[in-house]
Design brief:
5 strands; Heat Shock Protein 90; alpha+beta; 11 helices; five-stranded mixed sheet; 2 domains; single chain
């Protein structure tokens, strides 16, 4: 469509120049040299204009020649237009001035029009044969043509800028969509990792205990009981996975209820006393914040089961002030003292709490884990 319009535009331009040439030589007597020069300059400018708009390696070279060709056309046609019976040639001068305004800046277009008007004025002063009224009409026509060309140029530039901004906006939208998709994939991967690390880590500990009972004491009944507990842990892990899927959809239970259930489940599994307390007025939290705190609590409980089994655990959820704070503390045994000293050692490769820390940092929160007296304390805070 664009190519067809361009060809039609050029057909009209060539037709106008050809008709003007035929009219000049057939019906306008007198001053043949000036009229021939004006027509040749118009033809030359048209050829250069066509070469400049044609795609090719030499396109830039012809763009440089455009102001000179339009200037020569405008000046020659302006001089020919004020000769007796030369009025129709003013059409070519008009086209040259308008094209100069459209294809060059304001200064270049103004210089071309000013040069044409000055040339005509000097010719009138030298020969005193051109009417000053024709000179005034010529000046007004050329300035009007220049104004039309400049307005067309400004409109074209705005259209090109709008098209470029639209293209950039579309590109930015695609990049944002791609980034959002990557973020969502990362969030899903992190959530699946955390759920499996907690469930499989606890299950692995239970199986280790069952194996130790069977190999050390041969207590089959106790081993079967431990394996039953491991089966229940697997079922709990499946339920936890389903809850994680609901959480990814934004459907998550209130944080105190979730932590209370996690505490009770840990106490049933490991026979460890777990005390859970809530201080302050509970407030709704965004799903990602609630998940981050929940995963930190689960990771801390898995660590205590590994490094300080059967030691009492205290979990406190504090809503006081502008931050929500979770504190998980447990007493250390001699083995737990050494086991937890390499900070953030966990059952899933040593990076569980480190992953929780990174998750909280994304929410402008913080996580710390370390020894305080005879206790090991994990503290997670978020600005909510």
């Amino acid at each position: 469509m664009k190519g067809m319009l361009l060809r039609l535009n050029w057909a009209v331009r060539i037709a106008v120049v050809a008709l003007m040439g035929a009219y000049i030589f057939a019906f306008l007597p007198g001053y043949p040299a000036i009229k021939i020069t004006a027509f040749l300059m118009a033809v030359l400018a048209t050829v250069v204009w066509a070469l400049a708009e044609r795609r090719g390696p030499n396109r830039t070279r012809y763009f440089v020649l455009l102001p000179y060709s339009f200037g020569a056309m405008t000046v020659a046609c302006a001089v020919a237009a004020v000769t007796p019976n030369g009025g129709p040639i003013l059409t070519l001068a008009f086209i040259g001035a308008m094209a100069a305004g459209r294809r060059s800046n304001v200064i270049t277009g103004s210089v071309i029009c000013g040069l044409a008007i000055a040339t005509v004025a000097l010719a009138e002063l030298a020969s005193k044969t051109y009417p000053w009224g024709a000179v005034g009409t010529l000046a007004a026509t050329l300035l009007g043509a220049l104004l039309i060309g400049q307005n067309t140029r400004a409109y074209q530039l705005r259209a090109e800028q709008a098209a470029e901004l639209l293209a950039r906006s579309e590109q930015l939208r695609q990049e944002q969509a791609r980034t959002a998709a990557l973020d969502e994939r990362t969030r899903i991967a992190r959530e699946v990792h955390d759920v499996l690390a907690h469930s499989l880590g606890a299950l692995g500990l239970q199986i280790q205990v069952a194996r130790a009972v069977l190999t050390d004491s041969g207590d089959t009944a106790r081993t079967v009981e431990l394996l039953d507990q491991a089966r229940r842990m697997a079922s709990d892990g499946l339920r936890e996975t389903r809850r994680a899927v609901h959480a990814l959809r934004g459907d998550i239970r209130p944080l105190p209820e979730g932590l209370a259930e996690i505490s009770a489940s840990h106490q049933r599994r490991h026979g460890t006393r777990v005390r859970f307390e809530v201080s302050g007025e509970p407030r709704p939290l965004p799903p990602d914040v609630g998940l981050a705190i929940t995963r930190a609590a689960q990771e801390a409980l898995v660590n205590t089961a590994k490094h300080a089994p059967c030691q009492p655990i205290e979990i406190q959820l504090d809503y006081t002030g502008s931050r929500t704070r979770l504190v998980v503390s447990n007493h250390l045994t001699e083995q737990g003292d050494s086991g937890l000293s390499p900070a953030l050692a966990t059952v899933n490769g040593g990076y569980g709490l480190a992953g929780m820390r990174e998750r909280l940092l994304l929410l402008d929160g913080a996580l710390s884990a370390g020894r305080k007296g005879r206790d090991w304390v994990v503290e997670a805070t978020v600005p909510q």
